[in-house]
Amino acid sequence: MDSTSSSSAAGLGSVDPQLQHFIEVETQKQRFQQLVHQMTELCWEKCMDKPGPKLDSRAEACFVNCVERFIDTSQFILNRLEQTQKSKPVFSESLSD
């Protein structure tokens, strides 16, 4: 068992760049799908009192507002994380100084 895992781990250093790109794209798709699922679940719980054959105007407005706030919040968090990452020196750069 150990020899199999060590040989597969050794092979990871020479992964095909196209395969690496494919994996990155698929991972991004999966994260996006998870985000949509979270948003749907959150907004459904918040806005749907009782499911019916038609969406009333209050529920529709609630869904629109919920989705917009969810997107705004997600974007804010991503921007904040980017700013935090840019302001901190990269570990390898600090070692070379």
UniProtKB/TrEMBL annotation:
* GO biological process terms, semicolon-separated: establishment of protein localization to mitochondrion; protein transport
A matching Pfam family: zf-Tim10_DDP
Q: Where in the cell is it found?
A: Mitochondrion inner membrane
Q: Which Gene Ontology molecular function entries are recorded, alphabetically?
A: metal ion binding
Q: What is its main location?
A: mitochondrion
- The superkingdom of the source organism is Eukaryota
Name the membrane topology term: Peripheral membrane protein
Q: Which InterPro entries match?
A: Tim10-like, Tim10-like_dom_sf
UniProt signal peptide:
none
Q: Which UniProt keywords apply?
A: Chaperone, Disulfide bond, Membrane, Metal-binding, Mitochondrion, Mitochondrion inner membrane, Protein transport, Translocation, Transport, Zinc
Could you tell me which residue ranges the Tim10-like domain spans? 22-83
Q: Which GO terms describe its cellular component?
A: mitochondrial inner membrane
Q: How does it assemble?
A: Heterohexamer.
Tell me, what does this protein do in biology?
Mitochondrial intermembrane chaperone that participates in the import and insertion of some multi-pass transmembrane proteins into the mitochondrial inner membrane. Also required for the transfer of beta-barrel precursors from the TOM complex to the sorting and assembly machinery (SAM complex) of the outer membrane. Acts as a chaperone-like protein that protects the hydrophobic precursors from aggregation and guide them through the mitochondrial intermembrane space.
Query: What's noted about domains in the record?
Result: The twin CX3C motif contains 4 conserved Cys residues that form 2 disulfide bonds in the mitochondrial intermembrane space.
The similarity annotation says: Belongs to the small Tim family.
| The name this protein goes by in its record | Mitochondrial import inner membrane translocase subunit
